[in-house]
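Hey, I was hoping to borrow your eyes for a little while. No rush at all, and the record is pasted right below.
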Amino acid sequence: MTARVTISLPDELLAQLDAIAESESLTRSDVVREAAGEYLTARTRGAEAETRKRAVEDGIAWLRDAATRSADIPSLELLRQVRDESLGGSER
């Protein structure tokens, strides 16, 4: 399904849009549709990258905390604790 929308653009932006449309044998709608799709994709990628960044930062913070509070815990026991925490405290 396709919806018809009305938008306002500055004259200079419309001229650039029309020039691209003409040079690529597209309609204004084609160019706007493609631009909107690329914009939304870029925003999604940006949000996903921010989520990954926060996860890495949280992991680094956890490792720093674990290093200070568990210096005397053998590494195998520390790995068991990490596994248990990631599983919500339950066994597989």
DSSP finds three helices and no strands in the chain. Residues 11-86 form one domain. The mean pLDDT is 87.
